[in-house]
Amino acid sequence: MMKSKKPAASIFQLDGVPAMSQAFPLALQHVVAMIVGCVTPAIIVAGAAGLDGTDRVYLIQAALVVSALSTLLQLFPLIKSPNHRTDHTFQLGCGLPVIMGVSFAYVPSMQAIAESFNVATILGAQLVGGIVAILVGLTVKKIRPLFPPIITGTVVFTIGLSLYPTAVNYMAGGTASPTYGSWQNWAVAAFTLAVVTGLNHFARGILKLASILMGVIAGYILAALFGMVSFASVAEAGMFQFPSPLHFGLTFEPSACVAIGLLFAINSIQAIGDLSATTVGSMDREPEDKELQGGIVMYGITNILGALAGGLPTATYSQNVGIVTTTRVINRCVLGGAALILLAAGLIPKFSALLTTIPQCVLGGATVSVFASITMTGIKLITSEELNYRNTSIVGLAAALGMGISQASGALAAFPAWATTIFGRSPVVVATITAVALNLILPKGRKQ
């Protein structure tokens, strides 16, 4: 007798293979949400370094390929520990539904290094940063008590707040666009947001789960009718091309290594917030120690490999965390499918170019609700603890200093350039340091 066909797994469970008809659009939704954010840092660095067309293509390709491989290694750990909680289990990779991509957190430092040195210096510093991340990951069990829900919630909350200006700038058309702020951009963004919101609240089934993708498609069509879509980059792109490992080489400059290394240490801690947001928002639990440790160690390893491959620093993508927490689709094969699409985009330049033709106003309208979801996940973490005077002081002061310093232009003008780069460009850095310090200093157990 023939064996009966094994039923497809649910997209709401971590393991198993779901139906392709459900998995593919949801995977594509993740790609659409992060493709421009993944490619843009490479474009910025290429411009700062004065790279020619060929080298620019290599840098963008490597960014996509490394992001895809990093995501796959996080989703499917190479060393899988037993499924129970003990202090002796270990895995290499978090095994959680996350997407890795080239991070904007490193852009200001990379831009400064590219202007003063070259891309090889960035990649050398990235390799050192990967080692720093591995060390943080190996000690995460010891330092995790420093990051209770009130702290990780504050970090996630600040991440969400810090993404709002990005969403609004995207909705307005992108700050580099000559049509920035035009009524056409806002009309397309508002239409896209209306489609996403409408499907989220009134649709059912796959239309609801893929609301962001449907919104992007609808907004893309409207933008095309306005003449806002150009296929020139698709016509110019090649059909197939492998990235070139060590194409730029590696150079180790101490000041660059220190600046990037510090950012890697901070982003390793920020990963605790992203992984916590993922599990709390979609699985109703805190991440296990082995998931945090495996995720951060793999984060370091993949960035070392990325430096050798010519890819820029990657990190967990908060907008994709938002999609996971919004839809509660946690199946790893869905996100693995997104990684394979990214890999195809990196190996097939025409495909990559097609994805980047999506106007920024469309992406802004589609992702602003995702960023709002991240913020609300942070609030959910914060409110899981008692909101006494001590805890509200920690959250309020951390968010105020983090957002305030980063938004006040020239607030750190009298400080060295490295201080401005590290503390003046990322509200998450200041908020994290402030929250941890206050949690250690302020007295506990006293009723206010």
In terms of quaternary structure, the protein is single chain
Radius of gyration: 21 Å
Mean pLDDT value: 84
Order of helices and strands: HHEHHHHHHHHHHEHHHHHHH
Helix content: 55-70%
Q: What's the N-to-C terminus distance?
A: 72 Å
User: Structural class from helices and strands?
Assistant: mainly alpha
Structure, explained:
It contains 19 helices and 2 strands. It has 448 residues and is mainly α. It has a two-stranded antiparallel ribbon with strand order 1-2. The longest helix has 30 residues, at 20-49. The radius of gyration is 21 Å and the shape is globular.
Topology:
Layout: H1 20-49, H2 53-75, E1 100-102, H3 107-116, H4 119-138, H5 140-143, H6 149-171, H7 183-202, H8 205-209, H9 211-225, H10 232-236, H11 254-283, H12 289-309, E2 314-316, H13 318-327, H14 332-347, H15 349-355, H16 360-382, H17 389-407, H18 417-423, H19 427-441
Antiparallel strand pairs: 1-2
Helix pairs in contact: 1-2, 1-3, 1-14, 2-12, 2-14, 4-11, 4-12, 6-11, 6-16, 6-17, 6-19, 7-9, 7-16, 9-16, 11-12, 11-13, 13-16, 14-15, 17-19
